[in-house]
Batch of 2 targets.
Target 1
Amino acid sequence: MIQFKKLIGIALTFVCLMSMQISAQSLKVGYANPDQIIGNLPSFKKIQQEMESLVKTREASLLGKRDSLAKSFQSYQELSANMSTSQREAEETRLQGLNDELQELSNSVRAEVQRKQAELLQPVYSEIQKAIDEVAKELKLDFVFNKVTSNGDTIILFANDTASNKLDITEKVIAKLTKK
Amino acid sequence: MKKLILIVALFCVAQMDIAVVNAQQLTIGYVDPNSILAKMPEMAAVDRKLKNFMEKKQKEFADKEAGFRDQMAAYEQKKAVISADARTREETKLNQLRQELMVFDQQYQQEMQQKQAEYVGPLYKQIQDAISAVAKENKMTYIFNTVTTTGDFILLYASDDAQQKYNITEKVIAKLGM
């Protein structure tokens, strides 16, 4: 009888150990939509406004130059018939130079806008990553996957109701970031 | 007594059930294949070959373009003194040359992509084989990529524990003998 009790004890221990192992091995996988998170942040809206006004100012200065080039070109077309070959060539070289200058300027404006945007967004991205890490730790998740890429490709094509209720941490991350 | 044996037997069955569950347990690993590709020693040769190809094609293009410019200048000089017919002929020819230049440029871009795929393809295959081998050895159900080619994260978070257990990058690198 005592031996059987022992046996049962051993069996029970086994079962306990097994089930412990199971809970340790079962992965908890959450997911989030970073675009939705960033779109809900007041700091992001401020950055968007800042970028819009920067683009507007730069566009305005470019527009002036573009207009004056267009005018020069138009007057060249009107006058070219009465110009000597050397005059025409000189004027063409000048216009070509202005056009190249304008092209270069608009390239550098584009580069500046991209650089500025990356610079302003960097701290926002790290803030979001930090919030994702915190929420994931609170919920004891093993992984958090991205739901959709920034160019709109879906990574998570389906999550059942239970999963979308419990494991989509997007709203929780937004709450954490907007509470502060 | 019999009852007890029955209970023990039931426990055994329960254990077997658990074993089945265990075998079915989902394990998810992850790795960034592109970061491994960038570290492969073969990549230096690939980069060199691509650079050589690019320089060769760019020189060909520059030569063609210079030829076109010369003909263009020659035409500009004589256009006032040649007949309308001759002018049309010359202009058609010049337009054709311009078209050829554009086609050459497009083809060059395509060839560049083809070469890249041709050189990098076998390396990707090696990485994929190593990933599969590591995944099987570690009895993993899935291995996910962590970053897209456009730089978007696929995996946003992995717990410390998960990083230790499921990031197979180092194992894949070791498997490749790097």
Note: Chain B has one domain: 25-175.
Target 2
Amino acid sequence: MTLEHCLILSFILFAIGTCGVLRQRHMVGMLISIEIMLNAANINFISFAYFKALDATAGAVFSIFVIAVTACEIAIALAIVVSMYRRHHSLDVNQLRDLHE
Amino acid sequence: MSLISDALFSDIMFYAVAAAMIIAALITITAKNLLQSAVFLIVSFVGTAILYLMLHAEFIAMAQIMVYAGGVVIFVIFTILLTSHLGESSLNIKVPRNFIAIALSAGLLFTLVRFLLKAKDIQVATPTASPDYASLPSLALRLLSADPSGFIIPFELISFILLVALICAITIARKFKGEE
């Protein structure tokens, strides 16, 4: 287990998340893919902190911030999902035209 | 156990966890049923927590399990159950869109790995961090110290953001009087 292997793992997970965001039409599915991408970024933080950082604790602290911001993001996004479903009875992102009106 | 050295054991463990995480993530984005993909998201998150344990970040692993596998995924499952009927097939995905998504993400992965492999100083196997770099005392001392290297202001900002997000989520999702 070297730093390179951890980074390649996180890149693969990030690419999987990107693919999910691009191909999904369901809004919750897109959110799940975004979670995978954020998780990959977090793996990057921790593996750099463990293997190479001058100040390893700061890297770990940043991953805690990422986790907290992710919790906020998913709460608001799912509230928007519930509100949108109540208005349109559909969660297709192609029908989300009225967000920019 | 005596036949396998410690380093080899951790290598095998890393590859097993990495393969499980990648397979779970692939099932997550390809599953037809959203509930199924949420369940496989838990598998991927637990794999990440095991990886953090192998990187000696025990507190982060615990936070990962509690926040992601315990909080975020349960929240997602609740939303899926609130907004769809069980057994409903998900929206069908057209072939060009699928192809473009796979091509773009494969290109992204190729570019990232290509530039990663050019870096020579990245193949370190021995960690520079001390074993307690992410232990609870060192993290807490760092988060709450008012030194220039401390993180007290971002910590307070994060707590404020959590409060704002909570209130915003309730306000957005609440039923207004005019709606039926």
Note: Residues 21 and 44 of chain B are 5 Å apart (CA to CA).
